[in-house]
Design brief:
Radius of gyration: 22 Å
Oligomer: single chain
GO cellular component, one term: plasma membrane
CATH topology of the largest domain: Na+/H+ antiporter like fold
Membrane topology: Multi-pass membrane protein
Number of helices: 19
Subcellular location: Cell membrane
Number of domains: 2
Main location: membrane
CATH architecture of the largest domain: Up-down Bundle
GO molecular function: antiporter activity
Length: 410
């Protein structure tokens, strides 16, 4: 464990030095940390030996997911959801549960898992990650409604998938351990803390007795997040639902706090995400990748190229979304950080199928990171009508336009 900090610092420095190149090419920072963890872990070099039951695994996963859900919630305040609910609403209301079900069917019939474990895998793999579609979301040549769709969907579906993960995990743990009343109370307390704490903090700052200075203003939302985390721990409320609700509440009632914290918060969340990806990579060994067998790899590929595309196609039937936009939305359903942490939570849960579930989730995420992070630039260029084209294509297009305008072709 002593090697974790220097390993993270070294890979982080390398990622910073390569970040400009990564923004222009298929190189992915997330893939860099995943591969680095794989190489440094027990299965290859053994420099960074990490076991699933190590305390750092659960602690880092918990903090990372809390930070990510908190910042995700800030991207999608109620105002944004009201303005752009139609297309994201289809993706979340139909696409998310359909992706869950199609993935579960694949896990049940291809791998032979029980239905509860299959539904658990479906819930873990249903959220999407905006990081791997960054080139698409940030490209102004991409239609705004597609960028808004992917951004809102990926910001919300982590939190929406969470209750499904918790319920299916509780059921998989056995009837003796299943207490739906306690689970409901845990989720309810999480929502209450996530809404009440930031609302009270923002209202307090607006009174005549208090005012945050410019230098300390970015720390306001950080303090709110830490207080939500502490109260969630003390009351046993669901931390992740509390984080997501807190982010939405800050975005809704504290626009100034949201803007001042945005860049700072994203950096904090990014550090936790990259550290968790490094640890996740270290838990993946050549033996694990080989142990899933051909059926596991077929499931992983089908989860990427069938489950999400089918769900998106059904979700957008009758919509005005163009074919290219639907194709891009269908492909960019990358399995990212939330799925990583949900997989780690299941691994540490002790359920009978924990190892098998984690293996299937792991190979699917590995395939997704490698495929999606290396194709976002290519798909973004698909929408770039101003990109350079061969001279012969330009002349041909000019002649076609000339005919359309009634001109005599040259």
């Amino acid at each position: 464990m002593s090697a974790l900090l220097p390993a993270f610092a070294g890979v982080l420095l390398l990622a910073v030095l390569l970040s400009s190149l990564a923004n222009r090419t298929i190189l992915s920072t997330a893939a860099l940390f995943l591969v680095a963890g794989f190489l440094l872990g027990d299965g290859v070099l053994g420099v960074m030996p990490i076991a699933p039951d190590d305390e750092i695994v659960g602690t880092l996963a918990e903090l990372a997911l809390f930070a990510v859900l908190f910042t995700d919630g800030m991207r999608v305040g109620w105002a944004e959801l009201r303005e752009a609910w139609k297309l994201p609403g289809r993706a979340l209301g139909w696409g998310l549960p359909l992706t869950l079900l199609v993935t579960a069917v694949g896990a049940h019939y291809l791998v032979g898992l029980g239905w509860i474990e299959s539904l658990l895998i479906g819930a873990i793999l249903s959220p999407t990650d905006p990081v791997f579609a960054a080139a698409l979301v940030g490209n102004e040549k991409v239609p705004p409604r597609l960028r808004r769709l992917l951004n809102v969907e990926s910001g919300v579906n982590d939190g929406l998938a969470l209750p499904f993960v918790m319920v299916f995990l509780a059921v998989a743990a056995g009837s003796d351990n299943l207490h739906l009343g306690e689970l409901g109370l845990e989720l309810g307390v999480g929502v209450l803390i996530g809404v009440a704490v930031p609302w009270l903090a923002i209202r307090l700052e607006r009174t005549r007795w208090f005012s945050a200075s410019t230098a300390y203003e970015p720390l306001n939302a950080l303090a709110i997040g830490l207080l939500v985390l502490a109260l969630g721990k003390a009351t046993h409320g669901n931390l992740f639902l509390a984080a997501f609700c807190a982010g939405i509440t800050v975005a809704t009632f504290g626009e100034r706090q949201r803007e001042s914290f945005e860049h700072f918060g994203e950096l904090i969340a990014e550090l936790f995400k990259l550290a968790a990806l490094l640890v996740f990579g270290a838990l993946i060994s050549p033996a694990l990748l080989g142990s899933v067998g051909w059926a596991g790899w077929v499931f992983a590929i089908l989860a990427l190229i069938v489950a999400r595309p089918v769900a998106i196609w059904v979700s957008f039937l009758g919509s005005r979304l163009g074919v290219r936009e639907q194709a891009a939305a269908a492909w960019f359903g990358p399995k990212g950080f939330a799925s990583v942490v949900y997989g780690l939570i299941v691994l540490a849960s002790g359920i009978a199928a924990a190892q098998q579930v984690f293996q299937l989730v792991a190979v699917t995420i590995v395939a997704s990171i490698l495929l999606h992070s290396s194709t976002d630039i290519l798909v973004a260029r698909w929408f770039d009508d101003e990109r350079e084209v061969p001279a012969w294509y330009g002349r041909l297009r000019g002649r076609v336009r000339g005919r359309d305008d009634g001109e005599k072709p040259t």
